[in-house]
Amino acid sequence: NNNNTNNLFGNNNNNNNTNSLFGNNSNNTNNLFGNNNNNTNNLFGNNNNNSNNSNNNNKQLLVAAVDADPYMTSAFLPDTDDGNNSNNNNNNSNNNNNNNGADELDLPPQDKILEALLSSDKDSPLKNQVYSVIPKEKLKIFVYDLPTKFNHMIFIAHPSCETSAFGTEIHIHNQLLKSKYRTYNPEEAHLFYVPVYSACLVYRNFRHFPAYRRLIHDAIEHIIHNYPYWNRTRGQDHVWAFVHDYGGCLSWFDNLDTIYYKELRNSIFVSHLGDLDMGCFQTFKDVVIPPMSANPDVYRYGYGGAGQNMTRYPKSTFIHFRGTVKWYHHNDIPYLGIKRGYSKTYSKGIRALIKQLYSDDPLFSINEGSSPKYVEEVRRSVFCLCPRGFAAWSQRLFDSVMLGCIPVIIADNIELPFEHVVDYRKFSVKIDEKDIHMLREILMNIPESEIKKKQEYMKIAWKVFSWQRPSEEGDAFETLIGQLARKVRRLPPAGPESWV
């Protein structure tokens, strides 16, 4: 069109165009994402003689970062001169790089944000973290003081849960109660933590799953009827630890891809589950964490293999696996859809196939069941297989890293714990489930120099998977807090409200 005053998404060839959004034009006063010449205010556009345009590789990377993290705001876009502009921004009366809120949130200088986004320490398996809307050190978490039936009484009934893989829900609660991130004033809280020990209720008995559901239902009802904060955001600033196998799905009885209680769909889930194929895990709002190690010797002899006496504990096994290969249900459990006998879905048959293909291969050590020599076996191995079990995650991944055995992850379409800040490629191997038959060749073809690099990186990365008592900077709890800070949402809740 020609001589268009207001053009939205239009492609036009004209002069004297006052307002065009996404348009391609010349002599445009206000054009957003447009390609034009002599543009006064153009954001991300391609133009010449622009007094306020930052179209370069750095800005493109920032745009990609904003797209990847919906909670980054325009305050993260630098307003410094990038060298491609013919004029500076001193005379700009209409700056689209709005910094409103930057001072309010006390964010780092924008040039430092850009530097953090674009820099990379190639000598560390830990990635540079993108600044969150709420800096970690300023995060405030209110911990609900729930009736003891939701937590303490469950712990009294099942005390061994604390030292199991599912003890993370107890550890997180205890650390939050005495952490610097806790606030006693809910009005200043960014997040609200709901301390329900649901995994400890069922971790040794599948028959408790109906009680599991009632427990979550009662917790929601208690919060809604006794506090005003849930309804304020429809739960989107509330954090739940769902650390059983299927996380927020509560159990496989919930069809594996639904949240049993729809009221929870806005909340932040902290879980071991990072299965991207399941609807009860959403990477944009949830946080995947490592489980607790059920074996104290993993911590005692851990440190990623640092200090291991290679003379006393040489790497004598090339590829190791120990664990359940086929799961046998001893009883029918009708309300969970479980029938007595071997499970037809356990591990998607992957563990059974590994045993079938490699049990007689001298490079492999395939062992069923548990063993008091488990820690020693892992320490003596170069690669440790970590195939999925009932769920996609496996305790072996974290035991392997702690004990200096390169984990071989066999689970498709999974987000790993703290994957936004940990570069797993530097100390692990990940193999597609369909390539099990090529497992031997894949691992044999990894150069010895690369194996040694991965072993060295484990000596750095191990701590992020450890739950220290008390918590320490760089351990799993502190890393979790950093990830929760990234999940704070400033968006108003959306819902089925009506208006006129």
Give me a quick take on this structure.
By secondary structure, the protein is of the alpha/beta class. The protein has helices at residues 57-68, 102-105, 110-118, 152-157, 168-177, 198-202, 209-226, 229-233, 296-300, 350-358, 374-379, 395-403, 439-444, 448-461, 476-487; strands spanning 6-8, 17-21, 24-26, 28-32, 35-37, 41-43, 46-48, 141-143, 191-194, 238-241, 268-271, 287-288, 317-323, 328-329, 341-342, 364-368, 381-387, 406-410, 429-430.
The value of Rg in angstroms is 26 Å
Helical content band: 25-40%
Distance between the termini: 35 Å
Strand order, main sheet: write it out. Answer: 8-9-10-11-12
User: What number is the mean pLDDT?
Assistant: 75
Cα shape: globular
Number of strands: 19
Could you give a short account of the major beta sheet? 5 strands, parallel
Beta content comes to 5-15%
Helix segment tally: 15
Extract low-pLDDT stretches: 1-120, 253-258
Determine the structural class based on helices, strands and strand pairing.
alpha/beta
